[in-house]
Amino acid sequence: MSVAKDAKAVSQVRQMLRDLLLGREDPEGFFGLCLSVLGDNDTRTLFMDLIKPISSGHVQLHSQLSAIYHEYFSKGEDVEVELALALSLQEVSQEVKEQRSAKPPQVKSYAELAGGRWAWSVNGAGVQDRGSRGLEKQPTVTKWSLTDAEVQGPTTALTKGRNAELHLAEEGDDFIKEHDAGQSQKLKRSRRRRQRKNQELSLLQSPSGSKPILLWLRRDLRMWDNPALIGCLEMGAPIIPVFLWNAAEEEGPGVTVAAGGASKYWLHQVLVCFNQSLEQRGSHLITQRAEPSSLEALLRLVAETGAGTVVATALYEPWLKERDEVVFRALERKGIHCQLFHSYCLRDPYSITTQGVGLRGIGSVSHFMSCCQQNPGTGLGTPLDAPGALPVPSVWPQGCPLTALGLARMPRRKDGTVVDWAANIREAWDFSEDGAQARLDAFLQDGVYRYEKESCRADAPNTSSLSPYLHFGQLSARWLLWDARGARCRPPKFQRKLAWRDLAYWQLCLFPDLPWESLRPPYKALRWSSERAHLRAWQRGGTGYPLVDAAMRQLWLSGWMNNYMRHVVASFLIAYLHLPWQEGYRWFQDTLVDADVAIDAMMWQNGGMCGLDHWNFVMHPVDAALTCDPRGDYVRKWCPELAALPDDLIHKPWHCPASMLRRAGVVLGGNYPERIVVDLEELRAQSLRDAAEVRRRFGEFVDCHSGCDLVPLPARLVQEALGSRAELVRSGTQFLLPVITRMEFKHQTSDPDGTDNPYSAVLKGYVSRKRDETIAFLNERDFTASVMCESAQRRERQDRHQRLLEGLPKAPPTTPRGRARRTPARDPYSTVPGGVAVPRR
Ligand SMILES: Cc1cc2nc3c(=O)[nH]c(=O)nc-3n(C[C@H](O)[C@H](O)[C@H](O)COP(=O)(O)OP(=O)(O)OC[C@H]3O[C@@H](n4cnc5c(N)ncnc54)[C@H](O)[C@@H]3O)c2cc1C
Known about the structure:
The chain is an alpha/beta fold. Among the domains are: 137-185 and 207-406 and 421-511, 3-Layer(aba) Sandwich (Rossmann fold), CATH 3.40.50; 521-682, DNA Cyclobutane Dipyrimidine Photolyase, subunit A, domain 3, CATH 1.10.579; 768-841, no CATH class. It is built from 30 helices and 14 strands. The protein binds flavin-adenine dinucleotide. Flavin-adenine dinucleotide binds next to helix 16, helix 18, helix 21 and helix 23. One of its GO terms (biological process) is circadian regulation of gene expression. Residues 211-346 form the Photolyase/cryptochrome alpha/beta domain.
């Protein structure tokens, strides 16, 4: 080290020491950073002197640092060489260089490399050997076609925050157990610091001579917490990020509509943003049409670039998983080293098992979380920081312009003008990774408080709106979970949503037909309507039911609507219009920017009465407004032609007197449609009768003891349930499992002619109980206060009269004047004063 550089490094370490004392860094992190700044030799010689100043004031910290130092430098020479070889941190000997260029870079687990001590990453951040500290390895890496023993260990470099470990397990009402999560502020500071450091240190790498790595990007299009990206960096070779597009492969078999119009548009924008992020780091994205297949395209790229390794993040849709298996097997046969990283879900859905929990309650999120808790598997690990710069190849392969992929192609009118249907989507969203982060920060700062109680409101942005970012992996679920845990308000309900997301992927893995085939056999025979005009009206927001129309127009214009509204429109399509759930699924897949085959199919199956879970409710298209849009603000926004109607009639304009409609400028059947169906009660009753009818016809799929529907079990679940006894089962044997079934179906099946079903699932709309209680409390308090005020005034009046009678001077008034009044009785549309922020018009 030169003298100047030496002095700079030492002063940097002193600054880091101050951070350590302020609690912004932990001892292990500090030691790791020293190694990165000073290098191995200087750390060995200078470290103890540098920490001397704290030896008297911070005895415990000093001895902790000394212990770490001694432990690290007591490792054997062979470990050091192995470390250097694998991580290319040190100046490597010629012999080692030759070895590296001859073989594809091999990365072992840090625990292996460090021999149970400390390991160090090429990018500069300290890496803790988790094995030696009683924590589990991170499950991020799967080495393709190798045995379990060879599955790689953690990519723990550049971890976000401190020694922390997240588990997909339930703790009380919590989804995840965390051993030691740092506070979010601290994390952000440390994140920024580390990114700066990574930037400096990635410049020190000299990947020249190594075969480049193809980083095959599909989703997980982000810089932060991207294990595949960091995995590439750790190999110390030039990285070529490639995005290959083959619509047929994405689509898979059956009707998945995996790549609908709105989500393809989003993907296009994400690729633009991701390319910008790469360019900021000195790299760029190669885009190609994968013709005739991704395998062929990759083989061409390998030939063109001489790449020795292909790295990707695992995808879990069964058809994409199968495609990847074929691709990687073929590449391995050609001597290309392949690595697949897990990061899209919190838990790899193929690793979830029902062992120890059983199958009862399957399909519900509680059951799923019990499975995760009972079989925690490997921990989630800590989020990773973004790299500061990326090593680039000397020669880049040929790509095609992003527009040539046709992801954001707009239709043209006959006159040649473009129909820019995405203009509103562009306005509504910031597609960048920073945009995702900003939305998350804003939500955690503010929205998360309302989320826990008011996520059903459509008239206020009370949910995170992060779904499209999660779908395209601009935000990792792990990162989101981590930050949510660090939020000031612990949001268990929000965290649980991430379990829903994983549950959907688990279900898709178990039932690959989920997007097009009803899981409950009898319901395949349900009598559905074929009224195309109704479907069109529903799709375009022209049903005549303002709440449904507002939601469907929001979907069309912005590509999104909140969960509650998705339930409202799904209930309307299925229970009132009797249209098949698949129609709803397909429309959502085409119009949602967050269209996600697994989640969408699971939710539509559940809504369509044939999924693993049954929604035990049906949303009423008018009454639901009481819960989600009590003042009609949401309807006013998306159906402006109704804006002038009063709050209590805006959700049912057909009840408005003609004069009121005239004054409000509403013409039913003119500028706003008449209702496409009128007798909602009868339509609902018919839907119930239809369900009971198919259950009776296919009695073999109804459990005679519990009255529950029976679902054929997939082989994987049979295997888990029977264990070794599964071998004794004759092939082709079908097992049926009783699943959660709506009470009203059971009752209707047993009493088909009964007129009064006591289990009616139609929700009448409700204002949350908590809100009711708060209002009742405030009303009560107001009333008590006004009574007290009244009696004080009475006393004051008596006192004044008394003084007058006795000829004494007037006393100054002691209480503010005002008439005692009772707070008016709560009307159903009132909101908590100072609570939910819905401005009254
Ligand atoms: C009929 C129907 C279809 C749906 N289709 C999709 C879809 O295609 N893509 C999609 O991402 N979500 C879908 N959902 C689930 C849910 O409505 C959205 O995830 C949510 O509205 C997204 O908004 P948010 O990010 O503000 O959610 P938040 O409530 O803030 O939740 C945070 C995240 O948790 C996940 N999540 C939330 N709810 C669910 C759920 N019920 N199931 C699985 N994951 C969930 C999402 O990734 C979401 O971004 C559907 C729901 C219904 C009823």
